[in-house]
């Protein structure tokens, strides 16, 4: 280990060719180059977030294993990711974070939850015809309104185009809503006014045309929504409870928004949190095992004495368990800091090439500059020494704690 460290220090003082002495120029570039500053910022995020979350989760899991049945199986499941290499974990989470909900587990879960609580069905691209005779008009804010005001007891037609017939081929045939027999109600139909292969009468419901189900319809008067409903499978709707007067029947813009397909986990905004999530999945079980070992050494007399004195479980945990576990928690935290400072595999595998600059960390930048196309071992050696300087203080701290505990 000594020779590579000494040679890296020596090599960091020269340029990319290794022939021209540049002194501390490579080190100065670390703090002036925007790409390298991004890697330092990302490493700071890693150091602040990942070790803390891993330690806290490890503590929670360790405490839970003392209070549940099948504790051994619980520990085994949580520790199992440690048996997977970081390379394999990166491949797994590259698939987990796929944008397509049919492929990516994360977005499959998000879209399922979203669709469970969102009843409206989107028809992106749908619009009314653009002519003076069209019964409905598209507004600048994305809404669609009926051309003429409607009154209770009337039925309105809202024909839409812009959707491929195959996109609604499984929909029910559209049905023209009859005028409501009683007062206080406006009826109508929203349908795709297109016949596959041509034909049909424009602005009229034909037998071959499909109703648009799940579209939100509103009755608006004086700028306020007075009634809201959704279209049935055949495209019909009924706005009830309306007093006498004129109303604008409109379809909100949300009806025409693209369906929710989850988050762009592998995009520039979320790539670093996504990779940190993969790291936590791997290392939370490791932290749990170490903390559980420390928890087993906590004197039970102190815990029982506190309970006898009337302390709640939260007070026992906060005032006795955590202080007695402080040395173990500190060791776990510092060990995680050392690990995240030199994280490489997960970032290299999970981050697509297009967003790797936004997810970059010091260890990956060191490899990219030296061997990943940069071919600048001078700068790469400077990054390696910079990383060593960051890691060494935490290593010394850990070693001193180990020695103090042995004494």
From TrEMBL:
Segments of this protein annotated with the region Disordered: 119-144
Segments passing through the bilayer: 44-64, 76-97, 278-299, 320-341, 379-399
Main location: membrane
The keyword Metal-binding appears for this protein: no
Compartment annotation: Cell membrane
Keywords noted in UniProt: Cell membrane, Membrane, Transmembrane, Transmembrane helix, Transport
Domain ABC transmembrane type-1 positions: 40-398
Membrane-protein topology: Multi-pass membrane protein
Annotated InterPro entries: MetI-like, MetI-like_sf, UgpAE/MalFG_permease
PANTHER family (UniProt xref): BLL4140 PROTEIN, DIACETYLCHITOBIOSE UPTAKE SYSTEM PERMEASE PROTEIN DASB
Family of the protein in this entry: Belongs to the binding-protein-dependent transport system permease family.
Protein name: ABC transporter permease subunit
Source organism phylogeny: Bacteria, Bacillati, Actinomycetota, Actinomycetes, Streptosporangiales
């Amino acid at each position: 280990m000594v020779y590579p460290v000494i040679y890296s220090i020596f090599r960091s003082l020269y340029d990319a060719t290794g022939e021209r002495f540049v002194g501390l120029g490579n080190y100065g570039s670390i703090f002036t180059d925007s790409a390298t500053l991004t890697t330092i910022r990302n490493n700071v995020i890693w150091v602040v977030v990942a070790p803390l979350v891993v330690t806290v989760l490890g503590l929670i899991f360790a405490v839970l294993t003392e209070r549940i049945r099948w504790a051994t199986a619980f520990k085994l499941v949580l520790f199992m990711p440690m048996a997977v290499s970081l390379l394999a974990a990166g491949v797994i989470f590259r698939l987990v974070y796929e944008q397509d909900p049919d492929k990516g587990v994360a977005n499959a879960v998000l879209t399922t939850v979203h669709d469970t609580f969102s009843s409206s069905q989107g028809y992106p691209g749908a619009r009314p015809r653009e002519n003076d005779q069209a019964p409905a008009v598209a507004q600048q804010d994305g809404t669609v309104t009926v051309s003429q005001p409607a009154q209770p007891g009337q039925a309105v037609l809202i024909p839409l185009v812009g959707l491929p017939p195959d996109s609604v081929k499984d929909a029910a045939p559209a049905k023209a809503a009859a005028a409501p027999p009683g007062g206080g109600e406006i009826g109508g139909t929203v349908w795709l006014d297109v016949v596959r292969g041509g034909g049909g009468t424009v602005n009229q419901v034909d037998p071959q045309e499909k109703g648009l189900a799940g579209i939100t319809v509103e009755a608006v008067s004086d700028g306020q929504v007075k009634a809201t409903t959704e279209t049935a499978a055949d495209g019909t709707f009924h706005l009830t409870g309306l007093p006498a007067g004129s109303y604008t029947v409109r379809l909100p813009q949300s009806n025409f928004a693209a369906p929710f397909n989850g988050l762009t986990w592998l995009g520039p905004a979320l790539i670093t949190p996504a990779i940190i999530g993969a790291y936590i999945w791997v290392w939370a079980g490791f932290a749990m095992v170490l903390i559980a070992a420390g928890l087993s050494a906590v004197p039970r007399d102190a815990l029982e004495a506190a309970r006898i004195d009337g302390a709640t479980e939260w007070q026992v945990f906060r005032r006795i368990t955590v202080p007695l576990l402080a040395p173990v928690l500190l060791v776990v935290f510092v060990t995680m800091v050392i690990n995240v400072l030199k994280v490489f595999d997960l970032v290299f595998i999970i981050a697509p090439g297009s967003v790797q600059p936004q997810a970059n960390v010091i260890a990956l930048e060191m490899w990219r500059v030296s061997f990943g196309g940069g071919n600048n071992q001078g700068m790469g050696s400077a990054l390696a020494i910079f990383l060593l300087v960051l890691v060494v203080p935490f290593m010394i701290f850990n070693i001193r704690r180990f020695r103090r505990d042995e004494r």
